[in-house]
Amino acid sequence: MVYEENYKRTKIRREDDDGRLMYSVADVARILGLARNTIYALCTRGQIPYVRVGRSLLIPKHQLQKLIDNVEKPKGVV
C-alpha cells in the first residue's frame, strides 16, 4: 500500500506535461506532494518503478501515471 492519504486520483497536471519521458525524484516529489526521501524509499522498496542512470534515479512518466491511476481511494472518500 502506497501512502494513500497523500494521493489524489488525478492526471499529471498540464504544467508537468513538458514532453519529458522521465522524471527525477525531486520532480516526482513535487508532483505528488511528498518528500524526496519518501520517493527514494518507495523506489528502493519497489513501489515506484525507476531506472538508475549513474547515481540518479529516474521515474518513467507512464509508470508514475499508472501508479497514480491505480492507487485505491482511502476509506470514507467518495
Structural description of this entry:
By secondary structure, the chain is of the alpha+beta class. Helices cover 35% and strands 14% of the residues. Helix 1 packs across helix 2 (36-44). The longest helix has 10 residues, at 61-70. The two termini are 19 Å apart.
Brief overview:
By secondary structure, this protein is α+β, with helices and mostly antiparallel strands. It has helices spanning 25-32, 36-44, 61-70; strands at residues 22-24, 51-53, 56-60. Helices cover 35% and strands 14% of the residues.
**What helical percentage do the residues reach?**
25-40%
Described by the principal axes of the CA atoms, the overall outline is globular
* Secondary structure category: alpha+beta
The residue-averaged pLDDT reads 81
The major β-sheet equals: 3 strands, antiparallel
Spatial arrangement of strands, main beta sheet:
1-3-2
Supply the number of helical segments. 3
Question: What Rg, in angstroms, do the CA atoms define?
Answer: 12 Å
Could you tell me the number of beta strands?
A: 3
Terminal-residue CA separation: 19 Å
The SSE order reads: EHHEEH
pLDDT < 50 stretches:
1-7
Q: Tell me what portion of residues adopts beta-strand conformation.
A: 5-15%
